[in-house]
Amino acid sequence: MEFQKLSALSLKEMFIHQIRDLILSGQMPVGSRLPSEREIARQMQVSRAVVNSGFSELEKQGFLEVHPRQGVFVADYGKNGNINTLNAIMEYHGDTLGQGEIYSIIEVRRALEHLATDSIVKNSSNEDILGLEGLLEEVAAAKTIDDTVLATFSFHHKLSVISGNSIIPLIYISFKPVVTQLWKRFCLKYGKEALYDSVLCLYKCMKERDALAARRCTDKQLNEALEGGHQIF
Hints:
By secondary structure, this protein is mostly helical. Helix content is 70%, strand content 3%.
């Protein structure tokens, strides 16, 4: 058995996690002004460089707004956040992600998958579609939930690639932490075989070049996850 090297979080990472957790827990509400870099550095016993670089990263994640000569404020991340914000929220809430957030994520995935499968049926070559079979086999052969989820993501990402739409693969990659977390939850509740069945259904539809059947396949799976027998709430 081979063990992986353990490493501690850097001061910057610990700083980011602490500020982000204070924001997400509501202890630092939207619009509130943070103390100065000097004061935060003094209280947390870190350098101002750590605070400054941490602020920059939290601004990229959509949690802070830095206004020159005015200060640093908690951003309205729910309104103006980005995919990094969503990933951070997923990490913070873990299995407690709310029904509203899950519903929104699934509906976005539905739209993307419909777009991808419609395009594949119209534009992709037979070779591209048959190339999905190896990824399908990886899902079937996976021994653990983690392996099943990663193989399933590879299948869906390949779908997005062969769709011919250059933007869909970028969106899929951005959503990877969110989608894989939901798939893990799904497998823990219903088994990894259920996830394989959904991939197999899509592959058969693509092989038969049946766009309507692919849409029905996607809708059935996602509707089951939202309000049917395979709910993930």
